[in-house]
Amino acid sequence: MPIEVGDDAPATSGFADLTVGVLALQGAFALHQQRLQALGVEAPLVRTPNDLENLDAIVLPGGESTTMSNLLATSGLFDVLGQRLADGLPVFGTCAGMILCAAEVRDGRSDQRGFDLMDISVTRNGYGRQLESFEADVEVTGLAKPFHALFIRAPFVTRVGDGVEILAELDGSAVLLRQQGCTVAAFHPELTNDTRLHRIFIDSFSAR
User: Fold this and answer.
1) What is the CATH number of the domain that holds 165?
2) Domains in the chain: how many in total?
3) Does the annotation count 32 as an active-site position?
4) Is 95 a catalytic residue?
5) Do the domain assignments include residue 12?
6) Residues in the chain with pLDDT < 50?
7) What are the CB-based long-range contacts (under 8 Å, 24+) for 171-177?
8) 117 lies in which domain range?
9) Which of 31, 45, 56, 185 is deepest in the core (most CB within 10 A)?
10) pLDDT in tens, 70-102
11) Of 112, 109, 92, 77, nearest to 176 (Cα)?
12) Catalytic (active site) residue 148
């Protein structure tokens, strides 16, 4: 159940001309779709290569990173999406989506594939397993009030490259980062009703 959280931004903000797809193979994709729709964004679910047409950006949700990697391959999406991302399609990767965007997964399986979009190294489930999930308020660059973040089997960032901007930290470790058109979060912003991080992502490319 989403947690009620105060949002210091308007519910809608003139994004009606934008289309941000949500990868819908596995994970919490429906809640990402709801957060985007609350901002007035068209947010179709992406399950096939044809669904990638006419997107202004895409969200890679949380879930299980190895399963998501395999489903991207079997659905025929991996190579097509990888090319779109390499060509500059903006992406917001959360939890498992962060792992898919990372340049290095230090404890990844041999058959696990990613998109190598951000110069970071991560470890899967770095904050612990499901029973060790937790919540924390994090200070985010550009936000007047902290964001209430939910960490569920969250990846842990062990290295940050020079070209990566850290937008939020928890106990000295980066948990929200951006590099060019790629934004990633170690936590699940879709599990609250606070749309500010989705706004930050949209603003990062819609203002270009």
Assistant:
1) 3.40.50.880
2) 1
3) no
4) yes
5) no
6) 1-6, 8-12
7) 174/120, 175/138, 175/149, 175/151, 176/138, 176/140, 177/118, 177/120
8) 20-206
9) 185
10) 999 999 999 999 999 999 999 999 999 999 999
11) 92
12) no
Predicted local distance difference test score (pLDDT) of residue 128: 59
pTM of the model: 0.91
Question: What pLDDT, on a 0 to 100 scale, did the predictor assign at position 130?
Answer: 60
Catalytic residue among 32, 95, 148, 198: 95
Alpha helices in the chain (DSSP H): 29-38, 65-74, 77-86, 96-101, 196-206
In a domain, 8, yes or no: no
Q: Which of 32, 148, 188, 198 is catalytic?
A: 188
Q: What percent of the chain has pLDDT over 70?
A: 88
Distance CA 100, CA 117 (A): 8
| Annotated catalytic residue, options 32, 101, 148, 190 | 190
Residue 151 in any domain: the answer is yes
Residue 11 has a pLDDT of: 46
CA torsion sign for 154, 146, 17, 12 is: positive
Q: What angle do CA 147, 197, 56 make, to 5 degrees?
A: 175
User: Does residue 116 lie within any of the structural domains?
Assistant: yes
